[in-house]
User: What shape does this take?
Amino acid sequence: MLFTHLFFWGFFLIVLLFYSVVYKASKSRTIYLLAVSLFFYFKTSGVFVLLLLFTIISDYNWGRLIHHSASETKKKVFLTISIVLNLSLLCYFKYSYFFHHSANQITGHESKFFNHFSNFSNTFFNTGFSVDKLLLPVGVSFFTFQSLSYTIDLYRNKIKPVDSIFDYGFFVCFFPHLVAGPIVKAHDFVHQIYQPYKLARLEFGIALFWILNGFVKKIVADYIAVNYIDRIFDTPHLPSGLEVVFGIFGYSLQIYMDFSGYTDIAIGLALILGYRLKTNFNSPYKAQSTSEFWKRWHISLSSWLQEYLYIPLGGNKKGTIGSYIAIIIICGFLVLLSGKIWLLYLLGGIALVFILLALLLPKVKQQINTNINLMVTMLLGGLWHGSSTLFIIWGGLNGLGLVIHKFWKKISPFKGDESMLTKFILMLITLTFISFTRIFFRSPDMETVNMLFYRITTFFGGDQFFEILWGYKFVFGLMLLGYLIHWIPESYKQSYRHWFARQHYAIMGAIAVIVIFVTYQLMSGEMQPFIYFQF
Assistant: This one.
């Protein structure tokens, strides 16, 4: 069920038809949307809907136990069980193949991987899953994090428990944001379940605008991917270094348009149904530093990690035992992923050097304590995307960028400089850094990474600039247009959004038909799944 498929919009129109009967009664509305959301996930992921149901039933009951327990110790025990169960399921589907492969490397055995969930599904539901392969349920990371926020918020007394399991199920699996976000925290959403439906005339226009905006973003993202970016990463030995550089900046635009396009549509759909989801992207390529970038990019994940990981670990004040345990676990992942024992000795040596420096130099100890949680958060953010050395390197590079920026702020000669030229230079530097780290994010393996850097450094092909530009003129034209629209001041964007939202329904409908018709002309093949479905 892709938002860009006609089938989905037929489904949504039917949903709205019956919703018009129940939307005024909050209990009926909730149960109806829960049923719709479960059907949506079933059509998206089939038998994996059982995992979603298990998460709902499990955390609803752990939440009740947390709320009704008078003992602080019992509250902690119930919260710990909830966290362990959620993370165990997440780790099984995201990392069990990795652990099995690592065990074979360590022991020298060649045992075959056995997927217990696939075997269960084949036995009881007559499915045909291969038991020696691991399938990742769509959106498992998103609904797991959402469910965790509920039990944690209850433990912190930030929210009251929901009235029924139907309310909780609806919170976890509300279909617009279920499979690719934005991640919704309990204290931002649960209270909306009990509010009366309201949708102002202007809000409906804004909702329709976001849906169209997201649709256009996705189609354009697919076009530049199929016609240029995928060719660069699929055949890294063929393009010149200049083509690789264009591809890197093109991928930054593609992943932004693809991911923010999904969340734009999700926000619009939710608003039509009477629910307000928070902004997930705030023009991230306007950022003038890595710190600012991560406040603008995938805001729901960044804020989740900050609230439920970074601050509990000590934030920017100190490192905790949890910080160092997390670092050890991440280093263990790196060693197992690489299969190189020398990496264990290297990481151990680096750790020993830092320990000695911390003991001998108090200032070094202070810097380690205040910056370790930044690195832990970004490294775990990389690991959240999958069990790959490349994801950990990508997370580590972004963590390093955040740490360097903290030091740079103290000595920056641009401090207080508000000139447009300075802002533009800092923006380009930030975009370049973020884009080059994504070589590790997009590449399928380290060989591809090495080859892309090799092409840039040894065969740049600057003399082919105009030939390359002309050969891909339409793709590059769309990329340039995409970045220019992205850099439009927010005040102008708000003005044309509100202009559209204030038009008569007939005019909005006509504009929508024209936009969809024109945009569909860019389709060059089967619609691609949204990139973040894989996470």
Observations:
- Residues 93 and 135 are 7 Å apart (CA to CA).
- The chain is about 70% helix and 0% strand.
